[in-house]
Each structure stands twice: as C-alpha cells, then as structure tokens.
Amino acid sequence: QLQLVESGGGLVQPGGSLRLSCAASGFTLDYYAIGWFRQAPGKEREGVSCISSSGGRSNYADSVKGRFTISRDNAKNTVYLQMNSLKPEDTAVYYCAAGVAFGPHPDLYDYWGQGTQVTVSS
User: Fold this and answer.
1) Contact, 101 vs 52, CB < 8 A?
2) Residue 114 neighbours by CB distance under 10 Å
3) Helix/strand/coil percent split, the chain, to 5
4) Closest alpha carbon to 33 in 63, 4, 68
5) pLDDT truncated to tens, each residue of the chain (122 aa)?
C-alpha cells in the first residue's frame, strides 16, 4: 500500500521552530517530486514548498521564503520541511504529497498524506 505519513507537528510559540517529516512506505520517493501544502480553517489549501526528485530544484511560497527550508534524504525515503521564525499565520494542517511533475500546484500531485497540525501561539 502506497502511503505518506507526516510527523513533527505540534504547538510552538511565535519565533520558534519545527521540523516536519514526510516518510513514504510502499514505494520509493526517488522518482517523485514532493510538495508541502497547508490548509488553515476556512481557507483553501495552499502550496508551501516543493522539491524535485533529485533535490536540485526547490520552490517556496513568498510567505515562507527565508524561513522554511525543504530537503530530502532519498536513502531514508523521507522529505523534511524545516520551519523557523514561525508566525501565528503559519498555523494550519500541513500535508506532504508526491507527484511525477515538479511544481507548486496541488493538481500535480498524486499521493497525499493525512496531514499534521502545526499551531503557532503564545
């Protein structure tokens, strides 16, 4: 069974950091671009960051540039999202997704995780 599982979410104070992980089971991530998306209550799902299958290309939403870093370890079949200088507006459920094509649009991705909650609050 093909599965993506996110972990690393939680409650953090403004200015704090979290590292999200996206682990795959049932398939190898080597040939897939990976995207991170988030959805806040009452808002549409938005792209946060994505990384190509080789790791050579990455893309960030303007709202997270300079604060978030995406990386991948294909040997561990895992992709990471390091989130620093977190703000209350980063509060959302974060999802990872795998797809053949690289890009920020959700329609490019075929496999989705269940999401992990990130709450930024004092």
Assistant:
1) no
2) 11
3) 10, 50, 40
4) 4
5) 789 999 999 999 999 999 999 999 988 999 999 999 999 999 999 999 999 999 999 999 999 999 999 999 989 999 999 999 999 999 999 999 999 999 999 999 999 999 999 999 99
